[in-house]
Amino acid sequence: MAANRHPKIRTSETEKQMQNDQQRYQLGAREESGRYPVRVDGKPAGSVYRRHGSWFPVMPGHPMDGRSTNRYGAAELLVAAVDQGKRPTIPVQAARPHTPRALDVATRSYTYLIPDLRPTLPNLVRAAEATARLAELAWKPLAGYPGADQPWMMQCLLCGWEGRRFWSHLRGRNGNGIPRPINRHPGCLPVADHAELIAKHTAELTVTCECEFKHPTTVHKAIDVLSSLQNASAESPLALLYARPVLEPCTAASQRAVALRCALNHLTAQK
Ligand SMILES: [Zn+2]
Ligand SMILES: [Zn+2]
User: Fold this and answer.
1) In angstroms, what is the span from residue 155 Cα to ligand 1's centroid?
2) For the whole model, what pTM was predicted?
3) What ligand has the least distance to the C-alpha of 213?
4) Which ligand number lies closest to the CA of residue 189?
5) pLDDT per position as a tens digit, 227-250
6) Domains in the chain and their CATH numbers?
7) How many angstroms is it from 154 CA to the middle of ligand 1?
8) Which residue from 42, 90, 151, 239 could staple onto 232, CB 3.0 to 4.6 Å apart?
């Protein structure tokens, strides 16, 4: 077969063969959710998935630390967990392409917005603030907030262009709020039309949350949300499953960001 002579494929086949000789895990085929199921010593142990260039292991019922540059390394982390006596405490479900797992459905609306940063409360609040400001500027994030000086995948709501922009450019120099560059991105609509088009988009934003799922827009609610995240241990990746109120797109994202900032200041002052 012609495809097998492709050098890249041959390398990965060789790599796979090497793995097969001594490995204790088997990687299954990619599921619709993007995860690859992993069996360790012949038993389902969890899965691995790729996010922002790293591979992460998942064992249902156990917060997992660590990441790898490739799927094999992430699968090895599951082997290590099994050797520590850990087993999935929630049954690993077989891939069922037409009935995605309930958890995936429940979290799909915001898991793509989980910041590519340590999941601390300040980072989550920064992500909520940056996302809210993007909405005011008629940008839609397509990935989690990566920090101010990392490229961030987003969509221009004026013309539909998708590409990477820096938050540090969009928030302006020293946070002065004047986005750069003035033409938004190469090929956008004429600059003269931007103000009117942006105003049309921001007219849809609201002060109170009008979403089906209620997001916190008062300081009291925001304190509740941040406290429960803190209690769920913000260092654990599983805690991010509770980040929906903070990260999910909301019509009142700006008001939410203000409430979260006040709540964070309140919680910090208490310490
Ligand atoms: Zn544009
Ligand atoms: Zn909302």
Assistant:
1) 8
2) 0.62
3) 2
4) 1
5) 988 877 645 656 667 788 999 999
6) 21-100 (3.30.1880), 111-270 (no CATH)
7) 11
8) 239
